[in-house]
Amino acid sequence: MKLRVSAVQYHLHTIASFEQFAAQVTHYVKTAEEFEADFVLFPELFTTQLMSIGGGKRHPEALTIEELPQYTEQYKELFVSLARSTGMHIIGGTHIVEENGKLYNTAFLFYPDGRIGEQRKLHITPTEVKEWNMEKGDALHLFDTEKGRIAVLICYDMEFPEIVRMARARGADVIFCPSCTDDRHGFHRVRYTCHARTIENQIYVVTTGTIGSLPTVDFMRGNYGQAAVITPNDVPFPPAGLMAAGEINHDMVITADLDLSLLHQVREKGSVTTWRDRRTDLYTDWS
After folding, report:
1. Which of 21, 77, 119, 227 is within CB 3.0–4.6 Å of 208 for a Cys-Cys bond?
2. Has 147 been annotated as catalytic?
3. Has 44 been annotated as catalytic?
4. Which one of 128, 155, 159, 180 is the catalytic residue?
5. Residue 129's closest CA among 199, 65, 207, 203?
6. Strand 228-230 to strand 242-245: parallel, antiparallel, or no bridges (unpaired)?
7. Alpha helices in the chain, H assignment, sequence order
8. Residue 102 annotated among the catalytic residues of the structure
9. Which one from 121, 147, 159, 180 is the annotated catalytic residue?
10. Is residue 39 within a helix (H) or strand (E), and if so which, with residue range?
11. What is the pLDDT of residues 223-277, one digit of tens each?
């Protein structure tokens, strides 16, 4: 099985309307469509750009994080329409949703047939807790597609090996990781752990982050991001386990082809067989 993936380095800047947001999103989706991608990945928290709409003359103050969920239905309608019209699976980054008075950082998978899958962020950073009062998700979801089984784990989630091991044990071959980091330290924490997860579990990871700046939105004033398609470190794959990468902090889309048969090959007879050789007699198998 082969699949083509695209990842968007989404440029955050102040906008004046939802229509401007929709036009920017559509541009990236159409770019991926021109490359005949099967999946396209947007970054974590990129819909915070909608908070800047309040920064005009009529509303000088940006929206608060508690007000962002008011755009949830428009956001879903936009991505459902784009997934249907292009025939692609779109991981719509993450958006903040409200449920019973609580806020959740939530990733959405939009299927070409109109279905929507959801994955809430499972591990919440101190900033998300202290400044935005976010709640943790409580379940890992796997998504079956015509191109195989995937999982979507959000930024900080990749820094916890147990949850990725659970995803692999339940059949995921590709992890999509939407991310948002404001400096090099945060960026490299996520990037290095993405590489570690591919080696431990012999899987692909597709990741991307926000770039640009939202001067009127607290905690989104700085962004440091780069998209990458990351592979296990073994002979069938590129050296350093990096199949494709964007230019850091540039507005762009990257695209790469993934061959799932290579994952099965290295799990059985690679230079190392880390998935097969895990010692479940010594430590828990997180299946």
Report:
1. 227
2. no
3. yes
4. 155
5. 65
6. antiparallel
7. 18-34, 72-86, 126-132, 161-169, 184-201, 260-269
8. no
9. 121
10. strand 39-41
11. 999 999 999 999 999 999 999 999 999 999 999 999 999 999 999 999 999 999 9
